[in-house]
Design a protein that fits this description.
- This protein is α+β, with helices and mostly antiparallel strands.
- The chain is built from three helices and eight strands, in the order αββββββββαα.
- A hairpin with a 2-residue loop joins β5 and β6.
- The longest helix is centred in the first third of the chain and has 17 residues.
- It is globular, with a radius of gyration of 16 Å.
């Protein structure tokens, strides 16, 4: 029994190390990858609004489909960047540094009018 518990928890630990969420935001686009499952890239012209939010508990961590925020991609925590596209699709990319993200988006918006027009109650 003890061996089974060690194997289960060891496997869970390994699985958690395999999944990573990486986000890149620059003056051209927002891109993220939830490895090894998903990789997405959106130009600012595809984005209607962005907002840093506290989305609370959405049923756990990982990829959560059909939440009130659209798809949520998160590793841990309850804060993220909510993105609404021009085509009305919504999703949230989790973050562990919401204040740093807000500050970066504000700085980026000072030199990029497309980014500035996307900020919503930041």
């Amino acid at each position: 029994m003890l061996i089974l518990i060690v194997v289960l928890f060891g496997g869970l630990g390994l699985l958690l190390k395999v999944f990573t969420l990486k986000t890149k935001i620059n003056s051209e686009e927002i891109s993220f990858s939830f490895k090894p499952l998903v990789s997405r890239k959106y130009t600012w012209s595809e984005i209607k609004t962005i907002k840093v939010i506290d989305y609370g508990f959405v049923g756990g961590w990982g990829i959560r489909l059909a939440t009130k925020y659209g798809t949520v991609y998160n590793i841990k925590g309850s804060k993220g960047l909510q993105v609404t596209l021009i085509n009305k699709k919504q999703f949230v990319i989790g973050t562990q540094k919401p204040e740093v993200l807000k500050a970066y988006l504000i700085r980026l918006s000072e030199t990029n009018t497309v980014v500035k027009s996307s900020l919503y109650n930041l």
